[in-house]
Amino acid sequence: MNIREVARRARVSTATASRAINRVPTVNPQLAKRVWNVIEKMGYYPNTQARALVSGKSRLFGLVVSEITNPFFPEIVQMFERIAVEHDYEILLASTGNDPVRMETSVRRMIERRVDGVAVMTFGMEEGLLSDLKLRKVPLVFIDVGPQRARVSNIRIDYLHGIRQAVQHLAALRHERIAFISGPPRLKSAEARKQAFIRSMKEIGLTVDESLITEGNHTIESGVAACAQLLALANRPTAILCSNDMTALGVMRKSYEEGIIIPQDLSVVGFDDIRLAQFVLPALTTIQMSQGELARLAFHALLEDTQKEHTAPAGTEYLLTTHLVLRESTHLVNKRFMRPKR
To answer: Any idea what the Cα angle at residue 119 is, between residues 134 and 277, rounded to 5°?
Structure first.
């Protein structure tokens, strides 16, 4: 079974069958219906490469994520793919393992496969990738760091909104010694979250103690290590705000090992709102950055750019707002826990 046989059985020309398969809108609806009836009856699978040659589009989008083992990213992948299928697209997926070289290689390989666009969902980007893509006309989507350039979309995350809500929530519970565990400083998104925390503390007149700001790498293990460092302080914090939920899970683990009860002894707030956050005990209070909405914005940004003949010279910007989700891991400050260690 090939396209010529489909055309013969549908009693149309091969060119008409080809245009019908590629859903060219100028094809007579009755003829297109006959072609698709034959396709469904005979179980014919169109050659996607041939379709791409005819239409000039591969109907492939590339999706690059940082770390597929982090529960935040599979939810993005799932939603992105679901929307892609609804629009008759397929995706090529790459996980960089936070390696800039792998990221460059992945994007280059996708472009060689003639994808119609690439969404780089890594929350940080190296200059090398920009220079490699400088002369390309493939639509691209970045988070926070997209350059102002034609066919480049930038999804800007409003980290401040959610983090401000979290700090104000903890302050309302009478916490003053609030610690912050950041992500890797090389990630612009991690630095943005840290600066949002510092600004939010200053806005309500709380002291920003540098000893209470420590660095992690967005893993459970780094959350365990950072929590141990904070708990070893002579005057330890009564609340810890984390740069992501995986770090917060590490804090909860270390607290359990030390016999510290959350939230009665120590309040913990995460960031991301991964699905697991609502099922841990106690359920994690966290700042939601909707993975579903992020995937939706990224896909439709690519789709719009593929459908436009002329795009904005400075690219397009989209905004994703964050907000606090209250659960059970925060509590009124425990004055006993506030006492300096002897």
So the answer is: 140
pLDDT digits (tens, 9 = 90+) for 110-125: 877 888 888 988 876 5
Contact 59, 23 (CB under 8 A): no
Q: How far apart are CA 189 and CA 195, in angstroms?
A: 10
> How far is residue 27 from each of residues 23, 24, 240, measured CA to CA in Å?
8, 6, 61
Provide the 10 A C-beta neighbour count for residue 205: 8
Q: Sheet containing 178-182: which strands, arranged edge to edge? A: 213-215, 178-182, 239-242, 267-272, 285-288, 323-325
d(CA 211, CA 13) in angstroms, rounded, equals 75
At 62, list the tokens.
């590339």
User: What is the C-alpha separation between 2 and 287, in angstroms, rounded?
Assistant: 53
Cα dihedral sign, 263-163-212-206:
negative
Residue with tokens 């009124």: 332
Residue 165 pLDDT > 50, yes or no? yes
3-state helix, strand, coil in the chain (%, to 5): 45, 15, 35
Cα(21)–Cα(32) distance, integer angstroms: 8
Average pLDDT of the segment spanning 142-163: 86
CA distance 66 to 97: 5
Q: Which of 10, 8, 1 has the alpha carbon at shortest distance from 33?
A: 10
* Block residue for tokens 């612009």: 188
Question: Whole-model pTM above 0.85?
Answer: no
Count of alpha carbons within 13 angstroms of residue 19, beta-carbon side: 13
E strand residue ranges, 37-194: 60-65, 90-95, 117-121, 140-143, 152-158, 178-182
Token reading at 310: 């002329």
Q: How far, in Å, CA of 2 to CA of 222, rounded?
A: 56
Task: Please give the DSSP secondary-structure letter assigned to residue 122.
Answer: S
Quick one: pLDDT at residue 129? 61
Residue 293: name the closest of 15, 76, 145 by CA.
76
Q: Where are the beta strands (DSSP E) in 44-107?
A: 60-65, 90-95
